[in-house]
Amino acid sequence: MQASLISLVALAALPAAVSAHFQLQLPKSRGFDEDIENEAPCGGFNASATRAPWYYQKGPIQINSEHDTATVNIYVSYDSNPTTLTSFTSNALKTDVKITGEGEFCFNNNVAGTQATNGVNATLMVEYISTVHGHLYQCSDVTFSSNQTLNEGITCTDALTATKNLNDAAVQAAGGETSNSSSSNTSNTTTSSGSTSSHHDGAIAFHSDLLVLLSVTVGAACLGLAVL
Ligand SMILES: *[C@@H]1O[C@H](CO)[C@@H](O)[C@H](O)[C@H]1NC(C)=O
Ligand SMILES: *[C@@H]1O[C@H](CO)[C@@H](O)[C@H](O)[C@H]1NC(C)=O
Ligand SMILES: *[C@@H]1O[C@H](CO)[C@@H](O)[C@H](O)[C@H]1NC(C)=O
Ligand SMILES: *[C@@H]1O[C@H](CO)[C@@H](O)[C@H](O)[C@H]1NC(C)=O
Ligand SMILES: *[C@@H]1O[C@H](CO)[C@@H](O)[C@H](O)[C@H]1NC(C)=O
Ligand SMILES: *[C@@H]1O[C@H](CO)[C@@H](O)[C@H](O)[C@H]1NC(C)=O
To answer: Which residues form the Copper acquisition factor BIM1-like domain (predicted)?
Structure first.
């Protein structure tokens, strides 16, 4: 019983590690942790040590959406260390973008104003609003670049429906951020040790939808109770 439960949990953990919330893929995210992604303004992460060059005249911002519908806002801050929402909200690049479907979305962004110059440091913020998790946040620390060829090979369509479903391999191939969420780490622990405590941690990190499914599938009260 313990063994079969653990293998079910291990199986389920594979999709769970990437099927939660949303990820910022391009430009490189400060970091992704689904447990704190609701912390404004940057999903719980401090400024990156290095900045990604980003073409600011038709700058691609690509996300992977894990919910059927969501609303996306994109902002830019010129503060050297923006730590509050108000650092961003006066400079909107996109507002109230309604997206449908799970998978990849890429939006072109034209930065206007006196800051739209090669070499300017900025922080981009994506606010992702769904009925499932409310407001979630991801940021990228960039330096504006007028180098158009930075975008060569990036297809950015501004489509409002998902263009393709992504997995970790595709994200990595795109040079983007993969999910270093606590769930991907604890799922390994679950598989290898199978101890009660790591099993408990793994279950907690699961996406809630999956958890319901699992509880039903297993039909075992222990999993459900472990989470409660
Ligand atoms: C962010 O910086 C603050 C202040 O330096 C620090 O206390 C906190 O641990 C940092 N957070 C992360 C996730 O590194
Ligand atoms: C932009 O950021 C880089 C790296 O963080 C830093 O070395 C540089 O001094 C910054 N430039 C300006 C104008 O602040
Ligand atoms: C522009 O970006 C491309 C692609 O990263 C790079 O190969 C090229 O050297 C850059 N050009 C300049 C002038 O920085
Ligand atoms: C994600 O985890 C891998 C392996 O543990 C590590 O090499 C990489 O630097 C991490 N990335 C971030 C953004 O923490
Ligand atoms: C994952 O766990 C390993 C050891 O269990 C640890 O060294 C590593 O820093 C963890 N990575 C993250 C992203 O938490
Ligand atoms: C988790 O396991 C997978 C597959 O065995 C491995 O590729 C990955 O590096 C592991 N992650 C951590 C954080 O140990």
So the answer is: 19-159
Cβ 52 under 6 angstroms from ligand 3: no
In the prediction, which pLDDT does 174 show?
46
At residue 2, the pLDDT reads 53
Q: How many CA atoms lie within 13 A of 119 on its CB side?
A: 0
Looking only at the bridges linking them, the beta strands covering 121-130 and 59-65 are unpaired
Is any ligand 1 atom within 6 A of the Cβ of residue 46?
yes
Q: What average pLDDT does range 135-163 have in this prediction?
A: 94
Q: Residue 28 is part of which domain span? A: 21-173
What's the CATH code of the domain at 106?
2.70.50.50
Number of domains present in the structure of the chain: 2
Best residue among 35, 168, 185 to mutate for probing ligand 5, ranked by most atoms within 8 Å of CB:
185
| Residues 210 and 153 both lie in one domain | no
Distances 8 to 34, 130, 193 between C-alpha atoms, Å:
22, 29, 14
- Does 129 lie in the same domain as 193? no
Residue 216 and residue 162 share a domain: no
pTM of the model: 0.64
Ligand 3 atom nearest residue 152's Cα: 4
Pair (86, 193) in one structural domain: no
